[in-house]
C-alpha cells in the first residue's frame, strides 16, 4: 500500500532531499516513511519547502491515498 509519506517523499525525489528541504535528519524522514505519515507538526514546513522548490503539494496530499477505498 502506498502511504501519504511515500507520495510526498516521491515528490521530493528522495528521503535525503526531503530531509534537507525541511531541515531534519534523513533518519526522521525514514521514520515518517515507516509510520506511513508525516507528523502534523512537520507538515507546514514540508508545504513551505515544496512551495519554495516549485513542487506541487497541497494540504490534501497529507491524507493517505487509501482514504478513497470506500468510494463507489
From TrEMBL:
Keywords: Plasmid
UniProt xrefs under NCBIfam families: carphisopro
Thylakoid keyword on record: no
Origin species: Azospirillum brasilense
Gene3D superfamilies found in the cross-reference section: lambda repressor-like DNA-binding domains
Keyword match Isomerase: no
One Gene Ontology molecular-function label: DNA binding
Membrane-traversing stretches: none
Protein name: Uncharacterized protein
Amino acid at each position: 500500500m502506498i502511504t501519504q509519506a511515500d507520495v510526498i517523499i516521491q515528490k521530493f525525489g528522495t528521503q535525503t532531499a526531503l530531509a534537507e528541504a525541511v531541515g531534519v535528519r534523513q533518519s526522521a524522514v525514514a521514520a515518517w516513511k515507516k509510520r506511513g505519515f508525516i507528523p502534523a507538526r512537520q507538515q507546514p514546513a514540508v508545504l513551505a519547502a515544496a512551495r519554495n522548490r516549485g513542487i506541487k503539494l497541497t494540504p490534501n496530499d497529507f491524507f493517505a491515498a487509501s482514504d478513497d477505498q470506500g468510494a463507489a
